[in-house]
Design brief:
The chain is mainly α. The protein contains six helices and three strands; from the N terminus they run ααβααββαα. The protein is globular and about 60 Å long.
């Protein structure tokens, strides 16, 4: 099979099992599965955990900023927050600085839940670090961020 860097690469597709999107999807699923095991014990979804993590230690965030940070589309975020509010995990209020937007923050109950879950989540990260080692894990973060920035820049220059 041709290397992606070889002259033939532009004419050949890699086998699906060796494609970058599939490798990323398989890896994401393997990583997220470890976190799902923890979160399911607390009846939380991955998206709800992202919201809890994003709001942890903050006095609140504007909903669109929260959606951006969590990489959740705004219509989906609205439903997630509605369910979390129903469980007493978040509260919403009109943004004092801009009455047209809403801010959301963790309740005391949610803050206590985050503190309860943190050690288990840290243990998952420790498992990942044990598998790769700290140096490779940091390199992985660096490479993923570099790829994301490069693709975003390429997208901006080629609308």
């Amino acid at each position: 099979m041709a290397s992606p860097l070889s002259p033939d690469a532009s004419r050949l597709l890699r086998d699906l099992t060796h494609s970058l999107p599939m490798a990323l999807l398989r890896t994401r699923e393997a990583v997220v599965q470890r976190f799902r095991r923890v979160l399911s014990r607390y009846d939380l979804t991955e998206q709800q955990w992202r919201v809890l993590r994003a709001l942890d230690g903050k006095g609140g965030l504007e909903i669109s900023a929260l959606a951006e940070q969590c990489r959740i589309l705004l219509p989906s975020m609205t439903g997630i927050l509605r369910r979390m509010e129903g469980r007493g995990l978040v509260w919403r209020e009109a943004n004092r600085a801009d009455g047209r937007s809403m801010r959301v923050a963790l309740t005391e109950r949610a803050q206590a839940l985050v503190e309860q879950i943190k050690p288990e989540v840290v243990a998952v990260y420790a498992e990942i670090e044990r598998i790769l080692g700290q140096e490779k894990l940091e390199l992985l973060y660096t490479l993923l961020e570099e790829l994301e920035r490069g693709l975003a820049q390429g997208e901006a220059s080629n609308p």
